Amino acid sequence: MIRPALILVSIGVLAVWLIVTGFQCGSSEMTTAKLAYSQHNLEKADSSFAKEAEKNPANAEAWYYLGRVRLERGNYAGMVEAYKQSLAAGKEFEPRIIEDKKFAWAQMLNKGVGHHNRSVALEKDPSKKDSAAAYRKMAIDTYRLAIVINPDSAITYQNLAVDDHLSGNYDEEIGYLKKALEIRKSPELSMMLINAYIQKAENAKKADKTTEAAENFNQAIAAMAAARAANPGDEEMLGTLINVYIEAGRTKDALPLIKEAVEKDPKNKVYQNDLGLLLLDQQNYEE
């Protein structure tokens, strides 16, 4: 089963700026917030910008700087909400907001990768299994926050799917992989989705959940059929599809694929053996 490497994104240091004058409103809250921010008193700046935004919700500038303060405080969820309100009030700060959110997203993505790598390292020691699981949970939570900041990055969904798979959260993994594929088509993501369906099917089969197993085998088969249509020459996918058909008990559907595989690779003893067994299963003694 393919386990793709996580993707680490590095963003350069984001410059911090504040225009000391020129606020839209000369209220006491804005003046206090401006002074607190210039002195790097972020807690006071946060509360003062929040008061101004509450009093004057149409003040896009107050919402923007509230988001900016929250970014610097590491309150990314609060940042997202403040930036949303700023954009609702006006588009003046949109370019800055886009750059700020890129920075925050990269911070969370890289932090998630760090938690993931720590969990992998700890997992090598059986006595640290619980600690490894805790770091994996932190990775999942961090990736989810990254998605709140930037819901349009396939990388984040892919990394999140990896840790959900390792945690046995196959339904969540499948959902995130589907979302990633909506954003970016790739053979790697398709194979991850196929593997997730196969894993779910095999687990259900072991638990004697026949209907659930069949449903997930069928989902895997549908995904593989789509992948083969995009890349008909993928012999590895052909072999996997044959195996899944057989494991799903759909030997009749596997037969034409086995014949295709033998035609492509007539010296392959595994395919020759599988063909013979399937013909016997179908009581096709003439072939």
Describe the structure.
By secondary structure, the protein is an all-alpha fold. It has 13 helices and no strands. It is elongated. The chain starts with 27 loop residues before the first helix and ends in a 6-residue tail after the last helix. Mean pLDDT is 86; it is low at 10-25.
Features:
287 residues; mainly alpha; Serine Threonine Protein Phosphatase 5, Tetratricopeptide repeat; 3 domains; elongated
| Distance linking N and C termini | 34 Å
Which CATH class of the largest domain applies here? Mainly Alpha
Annotated CATH homologous superfamily of the largest domain: Tetratricopeptide repeat domain
The CATH topology of the largest domain comes to Serine Threonine Protein Phosphatase 5, Tetratricopeptide repeat
How many structural domains are formed by the residues?
3
Any low-confidence stretches, pLDDT <50, length ≥5? 10-25
In total, the number of strands is: 0
Oligomeric composition of the shown chains: single chain
What does the radius of gyration come to? Answer: 27 Å
Q: Give the overall form.
A: elongated
* SSE topology string: HHHHHHHHHHHHH
- Helix and strand composition category: mainly alpha
